[in-house]
Specification:
eight-stranded mixed beta sheet, enoyl-CoA hydratase activity, 3 domains, 2-enoyl-CoA Hydratase, Chain A, domain 1, oxidoreductase, Rossmann fold, fatty acid metabolism, FA_oxidation_alpha_subunit, 18 strands, alpha/beta
Length: 722
């Protein structure tokens, strides 16, 4: 159903899009907006149209709500009745541009993607203080969908247009005015809501209505052809040439899209608007057919898919407040303050509270001394902190989080105390990567408990694991997930244990690296191979940085739980002799002054077969895998682990594995993750490759039964027909 709200006031049609989902503007929303514009175009008594957002979601459009729009044009599904086909964003922009009466957009909150492009087609825009406007399609490996390569440079010139379209530049209210997108900026005020979308006090609404009325009586002011950015053709072409020469080789596949966008922006100077729009449509259609863009779209859709969390359908409080209980929660308090949340820090006794506050302040001061944090920002964060020993304060916040204490008796006592102190609208969460949420819920008298895994290592700080007790409500899951997203993390649900999927894939990666080392591959070769494929950090370097003792302990926990096969013992041997990594000065690499050097002698001897290992090394005459073989073995092992997790119900869908691999292990987004890559490469091909690799290590690479079943029944990893 459409989320479009309508009202009429003083001859002006007021339209508001309410509570858009994270995926953005869907087919029904576009159809509803088109019908409203068509009706308005034939209403001779209408003075103008004002369109704006209503609700906390703002005007953000991730461009992911319509799967059909993300297919190459030749493969899109045809509707039986062409008249029922919703208009594209490009068609909506053209409708707005061709309206007989002025159309004014009220831009407030986050305005992104296609909705930002609609602003360029409007006769006028009002920007509300606090605006964050961005053109985001290139993050999906796509040129814009609705004319931004043509309309934006006509307003602000080539350089600023390319900064917005390719550089990720975000414009605030003043920046939108300076770029010629908005006519006026107004101070922040009450936001529109779905219940009250058109109240007179809504920030920017009176000004938008006044501008529409003014443009209606002075049609010569209607800027249907804004060309200020084309005023100096020589400078414009120089900016285009500079952009082409500066284009560096980033992630594989993105350069082609960037070059096409630059071509389209150049065309804005040379071609008519209609011809330029046709060039943009062709560039987008070509990009939609590429594997790189399909991978980026797959990841982005998985990140915003609400059906991945169970039970679904809940809502989280919009209040940016959280209570954190216990000294163990100090790192979480620091992260929440950095994310702009107001935090109540609760400790049951004053001594514990003083200890927690001391650790928090010391950590912030260290950031200031290191130059990573301004003193003023530290003070602003501390101003949002409310320390207390009164547990009853939990009843005043929407979310209470036990910070991850490790003593089982203390955890049980804290959860029971939270159950008593929390208000009826307070959701309770525990930070726990390995605890069984059902057991914790029973022991802590918290039937609706949710646990979160919030890893602190650098590569996984964009990931949060979630597990929900059987009695957890949709609102409890939504509250926990919403909190993790406020921290900038992508949420993946594991069955029963919040960190299960992350620990499973991490253990699989550790065992595969061991196997490669014992087959003669050096740490440098392994890391270089994966870095060349786009991984953020090579696994050997990461293991040393995180600590081999910690890496092997986590892998052992995953193995003991039956989620992964045991390691081969080599990494454990290094940890046992004190070669734990960077902190010890030696691990897989030698470390001097905190920087990695060459491979340590013990590792070199193991690679060459000169030391005993927990598993046999290959024949002396067998060459170690080359760069492609290293990548192939690691990607195959992760795909096998993912298939097993899906088959066991640990992962709700294959996309969960991809998100964990990307946000937890550091795989490149452009790969789509191991499951997406396996599906795109063909399941029969994967099965054949696994059968060949299984001779090297059956536990790592034996094809799971699910793979044969998918092939036999013609299904894909996404659940549909092949």
């Amino acid at each position: 159903m459409s989320r479009l709200l309508q009202a009429r006031r003083r001859g002006i049609l007021l339209l508001a899009l309410a509570d858009l989902p994270a995926a953005g503007l869907g087919p029904d929303d576009r159809a509803g907006l088109a019908r409203a514009l068509q009706d308005a175009a034939t209403d001779t008594g209408l003075v103008g149209v004002v369109l704006g957002p209503a609700g906390p979601a703002g005007f953000a459009d991730a461009g992911l709500a319509d799967p059909d729009a993300l297919r190459p044009p030749a493969t899109r599904r045809r509707r039986a009745d062409a008249e029922d086909t919703p208009p594209t964003l490009a068609e909506l922009a053209e409708m707005i541009e061709a309206m007989p009466c002025p159309v004014v957009l009220r831009l407030a909150g986050r305005v992104t993607g296609g909705l930002a492009e609609l602003a360029l087609a409007a006769d006028g825009c009002i920007a509300v203080e606090g605006l964050s406007l961005a053109f985001t399609d290139t993050a999906l490996g796509l040129p814009p969908a609705a004319g931004a390569t043509q309309r934006l440079p006509r307003r602000c010139g080539a350089r600023q247009a390319l900064d917005c379209l390719l550089g990720g530049a975000t414009l605030d209210a003043a920046g939108a005015v300076a770029a010629g997108i908005a006519d006026l900026s107004v101070r922040r005020g009450p936001a529109a809501t779905a219940a009250h979308p058109f109240h007179d006090t809504v920030a920017g609404l009176p000004e938008a209505m006044a501008l529409a009325a003014e443009l209606a009586v002075t049609p010569e002011l209607r800027p249907l052809d804004r060309n200020a950015g084309l005023a100096d053709p020589s400078a414009y072409l120089a900016e285009i040439a500079q952009a082409r020469s500066a284009l560096s080789s980033g992630e594989q596949g993105k350069d082609t899209v960037a070059l096409r966008v630059i071509d389209c922006v150049e065309a804005a100077l040379i071609l008519s608007l209609e011809a330029g729009l046709g060039m943009e449509r062709a560039a987008r259609a070509d990009a939609l057919a590429t594997p790189a863009t399909r991978a980026l779209i797959h990841v982005a859709r998985a990140e915003v898919d609400p059906a991945r969390l169970r039970p679904s359908g809940g809502t989280a409080s919009a209040r940016g407040e959280v209570a954190v209980i216990g000294v163990a929660g100090v790192p979480l308090v620091a992260e929440a303050l950095a994310a702009g949340l107001a935090v109540t820090l609760v400790e049951v006794d004053q001594g514990g509270l003083d200890t927690a506050l001391g650790a928090l302040v010391d950590g912030l001061d260290a950031e200031v001394l290191a130059g990573r944090l301004a003193a003023e920002e530290r003070d602003r964060r501390l101003a949002r902190l409310a320390p207390t020993t009164r547990l009853e304060r939990l009843g005043a916040v929407p979310l209470a989080v036990e910070g991850g204490e490790t003593d089982p008796d203390l955890v049980r006592e804290l959860l029971r105390a939270m159950a008593v102190a929390a208000g009826t609208d307070t959701r309770c969460v525990r930070i726990d990567a390995t605890g069984d949420v059902d057991r914790l819920a029973r022991e802590g008298a918290q039937p609706a408990l949710v646990t979160l895994d919030l890893p602190r290592d650098i590569e996984a700080r964009g990931l949060a694991g979630l597990a929900a007790a059987p009695g957890a409500t949709p609102d409890a899951v939504a509250a926990a997930a919403g909190f993790a997203r406020r921290l900038g993390r992508h949420v993946v649900q594991g069955a029963g244990v919040a960190g299960r999927l992350r620990l499973t894939l991490s253990a699989t990666l550790a065992r595969t690296v061991e196997r490669l080392l014992l087959s003669g591959a050096t740490p440098e070769a392994i890391d270089a191979s994966l870095r060349a494929a786009g991984w953020r950090t090579g696994p050997c370097l990461r293991f040393d940085r995180d600590g081999l003792d910690r890496v092997t302990a986590q892998a052992a926990a995953a193995s003991a739980a039956g989620w992964a096969h045991p390691g081969l013992g080599f990494l454990e041997t290094l940890a046992e002799v004190g070669q734990t990594g960077r902190a010890a000065g030696a691990g897989l690499y030698d470390w001097a002054g905190g920087q990695p050097g060459g491979v340590t002698p013990l590792v070199l001897r193991a690679i060459s077969g000169g030391t005993e290992a927990a598993a046999p090394t290959p024949d002396a005459g067998e060459a170690p895998p080359d760069a492609a073989g290293i990548r192939d073995r690691i990607e195959a092992a992760l795909a096998v682990a993912g298939l097993r997790a899906v088959a066991s119900g640990a992962a709700g869908q294959a996309a969960d594995i991809d998100l964990v691999a990307i946000h937890g292990l550091g795989l490149p987004r452009i790969s789509g993750g191991p499951m997406h890559a396996a599906g795109q490469g063909g399941l029969v091909r994967l099965q054949s490759r696994l059968r060949a690799l299984a001779a090297e290590d059956p536990e790592l690479w034996t094809p799971p039964p699910l793979l044969a079943d998918l092939i036999k029944t013609g299904r894909t990893l996404e659940g549909g027909a092949a």
